[in-house]
Design a protein that fits this description.
5-stranded antiparallel sheet; 83 residues; alpha+beta; single chain; globular
């Protein structure tokens, strides 16, 4: 996903070592054909994440680690409708 910009909100699904969380894109870095994003999480963590780690759609499992906040909200709304 190469279309994020500074200020965009994201969701990280978490993994065995790292808690899930919400964050904000603080910088977009491009080097040759590689795009990466600096992310500052609401809990204070700061990471650099390659664009290829992001998915367009959140699936609620480990296959989608990074998504936009909008993608997360769409999934959350869908879960409410299925209950």
């Amino acid at each position: 996903m190469n279309n994020l910009k500074m200020g965009d909100r994201i969701f990280f699904n978490g993994d065995m070592k790292n808690n899930s969380g919400f964050g904000t894109v603080t910088a977009v870095r491009k080097w040759n054909s590689i795009t990466s994003y600096n992310i500052k999480f609401d809990d204070g963590r700061e990471w650099t994440v390659e664009a290829g780690s992001f998915s367009e759609e959140y699936k609620g499992n480990g296959s989608t680690r990074f998504v936009t906040l909008d993608a997360y909200k769409r999934w959350k709304e869908k879960q409410k409708l299925e209950v």
